[in-house]
Design brief:
By secondary structure, the chain is of the alpha/beta class. The protein has two domains: 70 residues, no CATH class; 77 residues, 2-Layer Sandwich (GMP Synthetase, Chain A, domain 3), CATH 3.30.300.130. The strands form three sheets. It has a three-stranded mixed β-sheet with strand order 5-6-7, covered by helices on one side. Strands 1-2 form a two-stranded parallel sheet. The longest helix is centred in the middle third of the chain and has 20 residues. About 7% of the residues have low confidence.
Length: 171
């Protein structure tokens, strides 16, 4: 997803293909990069265990959707709006939106604000799912961008990730 969005930022049409369990993650990744509602093709999961013939069949099935995505024109980033989820606004809404994408990988997210620092805490109860969750090196910049967009610049994002010893402020 990130590669497709980067191409779009360069003015080059792109088509991302995401397996079904990762649609929520794909949506959030695109949104965090400034491309809310970025369209992408979805295919069944898993794909790694498919035979060559099955992969070819899957490619044939998704080709019309990929063509449609490539021919639609370059996506324009939508204007940024403050996130609202139900009655939640501000930091609560940002945390809920970010957590939604992590839940597809059986993880969750909480956050606490102390002055100008927001500390996110990543919760991964199942060690088997830890490798499915994006690494801290990707999460911190995504969280920082979302905080900057929704709450304004000047706040520092930190991430407590149980997979790492510690994660300091983003740069």
């Amino acid at each position: 997803m990130l590669d497709a969005v980067r191409f779009e930022e360069l003015g080059l049409p792109a088509a991302a293909i995401v397996t079904e369990p990762f649609t929520a993650t794909g949506k959030v990744m695109a949104e965090l990069q400034g491309f809310a509602d970025y369209p992408f093709a979805t295919v069944p999961h898993p794909v790694a265990s498919l035979s060559i013939d099955q992969v070819n069949d899957l490619a044939d099935a998704v080709t019309p959707e990929v063509e449609r995505l490539l021919l639609r024109g370059v996506a324009d980033p939508p204007p940024t709006e403050v996130t609202t989820i139900g009655e939640r606004t501000g930091l609560e809404a940002v945390v809920e939106a970010l957590a939604e994408s992590l839940r597809a990988d059986r993880a969750d997210l909480t956050a606490e604000r102390m002055g100008s620092t927001i500390t996110f805490r990543l919760h991964i109860p199942d060690e088997a799912c830890a490798e499915c969750v994006m690494p801290s090196s990707m999460l911190v910049p995504m969280f920082q961008r979302r905080i900057d967009q929704e709450l304004g610049p000047g706040l520092t994002v930190e991430l407590e990730d149980p997979r790492t010893v510690s994660q300091g402020p983003s740069e």
